[in-house]
Amino acid sequence: MAKIIIPTPLRKFTNNESTFETKGATINEAVAELVETHANLEKHLLDDDKNIRSFIRIYLGEEDVNLLEEKGDTKVVDSDVISIVPAIAGGC
Amino acid sequence: METITVEEQPLSIIYQDAQDTFPNECCGFLYGNENEGRRITEAVPVINSKEGDQRRRFEISPFDYMKAEQYALANNLTLLGVYHSHPNHPAIASEHDLAKALPYFSYIIVSVMEGEIADIKSWRLQDDNTAFDEEKVNIHIKKV
Question: Among residues A7, A46, B42, B92, which is most buried (max CB within 10 A)?
Fold first, then answer.
């Protein structure tokens, strides 16, 4: 099964689990399975239209899924690592 | 007030990065554990990817964040927050910091005045996401 890495700030919604094993065949299916299992995560990852929130990026391995041709429909295989990446910024 | 312990080595890396990057803002990742309270055992500088004026803003690229979480997992560490500097400004979390802050993370801010380290403070977002709470920074110096 492919593995999703949960970023530390969102682990309180996954019972402190750092990773999630998914049977999803595509990125979208993998994310859907994750939020189905950990319902409290949904509002932090998805907007009202069930799209990934603008300040969250999804990586498949080292590739930004937004830059892949099939985006969320990109197929996932067992050895894949999917990362959920929040935006980090600030300043004085 | 919560306490965050920072070991000597990561602290020196943070200070060096803040001075080297002055008058721009530096930034980096904070790794460690929470076995007996929050403890930072490793700090890793990362490129400030903010386009435009880096004297008042910082940004960490999604690619670098993705690598940081992978690094933590591979090394049995937890990514516990990020640090950045406030050149010629106090180590107080700003509105810009609050607007982008994530829950749970510690945000260590170093004030650098005219190239010299002036102050260090740490901040954690409140549960309702409306403000920061200050964390007491405890500096741990190893006895030899």
Answer: A7
